Amino acid sequence: MTAAYPPARTVEVFEDVAGVRVPDPYRWLEEETEEVRQWQRRQAELATAAVYAGQDPEAVRALIRACDAGSRPALPKYAAGRWFRVVSPPGGPAPVVVVADEPLGAGRTVADLAGSGEGGHPPVVSWLAPAPDGRVLALGLCTDGSEHNTIRLFDVASGRQLGGAPEQVLHSAWAGGVSWLPDSTGFSFLALTGAPEDFRQTVFLHRLGGGTEPEPIPVGAGSREYTLVQMSPGSRWAVAAHRVGSPVPVAVRDLSDPGGAWRPFVSGCPGTVAGHVVGERYIAVTDVGAPRGRVVAIPLDAADPGDPAGWSELVPEGDTVLRSLTPVGEHLYLSEFDRTFARVRILDRSGAVTGEMPLPGRGALAAPFFPLTALATGAPAADFVFAFSTPTSSWGVYRHRPGETEPETLLPPAVVLDAVLEEGAALAPDGVAVPYHVVRGAGGAPASVLISAYGAANVPLLPQYQPDLAAFVAAGGVLVQAYLRGGGEFGRDWHLAAHRERKHVRDADLVAVAEHLLDTGLTTSDRLALTGGSDGGLMCGIALTRRPELWRAVLPRAPLLDLVGGTRDPYLDFVIRKAWGDPDDPDEVRRLLGLSPYQLVEPGVFPAVYLQAGATDPRCRPWHARKFAARLQAAQRGEAPILLHVFEDAGHGAATAHDVAAAQDAEWLAFLIGTLGLPGVSRPEPT
What we know:
By secondary structure, this protein is an alpha+beta fold. 20% of the residues lie in helices and 31% in strands. The strands form 10 sheets. It has an 8-stranded mixed sheet with strand order 33-34-36-35-37-38-39-40, sandwiched between helices. Strands 7, 8, 9, 10 and 11 form a 5-stranded antiparallel sheet that branches. A hairpin with a 2-residue loop joins strand 20 (273-278) and strand 21 (281-286). The protein is globular, with a radius of gyration of 24 Å.
């Protein structure tokens, strides 16, 4: 297998990082030259041929399509008594936006995006935001999979695209797109101020029929952080929430005062205060003084809003982990985690708990990846419309009206796996129990097992339906979803236990889960695989370089793999300084080198590896996967293949076109089927 790899030359390049000299023999693979593109294409051709060898590619693709039928739907947005939603036929024409009187009603088309795509792929609608009066629709359109998107405006009555939209490029949808002024005359939005690779952002205010100007929000000079402006119809207050993973309302403005300026609100807060403007108060979930979360109210005109002593506690900390609030009519719906499973309680506008909403099972509510994005709710609807799934049943859409006992099913789950969900826990080296879920069908042990994990950025891994993982189970595999420290499943302490200088704890947790599965006989090391994306891809890289004997296969997706090289990328420099360490400190640089997979590669025997990346990924650029693959291919002393496929027109995942994502999932699954020797391809039963 080694002889078939495209040759990768080495170069005498060294990086000086805070006085630490770091060799970088494959630096040339960071460039986007014709030499690199040809090398990348040959790697992709090799990977596809190797992955599908001895298999029926169409059967694998059919299984992916069957499981994709249960993909998480795009929930509608509410404004002025109507519901707006994106309709994207899988593999079909460009998406359209429809407006209807019911959340999933047929309605009529108000935005037809035919002809807006590039490279033969339809565009992706990154976000959707109707004006409070329902007359103008704003949406973000991405055409290359990168998540970079531009604002389009449509007249709802005629469906005509309006001119005069801002020309700035939005880096992603993480700040929610646009935030409309309560009177629908304009909106705020966070956008890039230069080239996307420079990663400089600021908040702008755009007036319909007028210009676009920077909004002078006091968030700190030179901050690269994400900021979302929150405004609510009928309210005179605007709040600027800052930080994508642990939002804090840093500034407030009285919109009723024409000359009023932004003033500091909750500043200098290291924790999370994520909420909404409700009357004259900001009602929020916070982990300040409560690692598992509590609900507090902060007066918007408080003299010292940053002092927690002046906050009113509405819901005290309990045994569950409080995650987010959603305004619904005159109520607030409080989302919680009960041992990772979703729970929803209902509060009135005073903050009093009035009841609990029954859920269709033990699973997860659909939620944005980051808490900041969840604050972009727009105009509150009278009903709570939500998506829900379990690890064994796909996404359904439901509606709950305050006061009713049961939610109404608007769209039932399309796929139910012939599998059961089990709970387990492994003991980490420091004695902490690390929970995991097992999704398995018929068959005994030892089984072919895939561990899926993340454990980073205060992001919770949810017990939800994921089409690619469901396809693995349908093909005869056993899925283990591990809840490692660093994630947001169990509150602030769980997150900080594997943050920055304690990042290594996440990797120890993963090894503990893997060894526990081996010790209990669920699987053997020649039938155990690992996958993860982004920071989870880095987790995969550490696992396969430090403990290669544990795994039969490792599959990093859209991975971060070179922490030192990442500091040369403005976006990753921002991320690494937040979550990993200070690259200006030589001791910190040496610590980062011990956690950076590209630098950890030494000659040895490695498991089978399938690296998957996107050519337009702005977060973990494809050169991470290219450099790591080249170094690993040269270092491999075993027989297992080291495969790399960088997909064109693919990004970090959120804005990748459906047909490209399906091709990625099919190849990923085929690699697992062939490497683990799964019994075959069988489609899940439709409901």
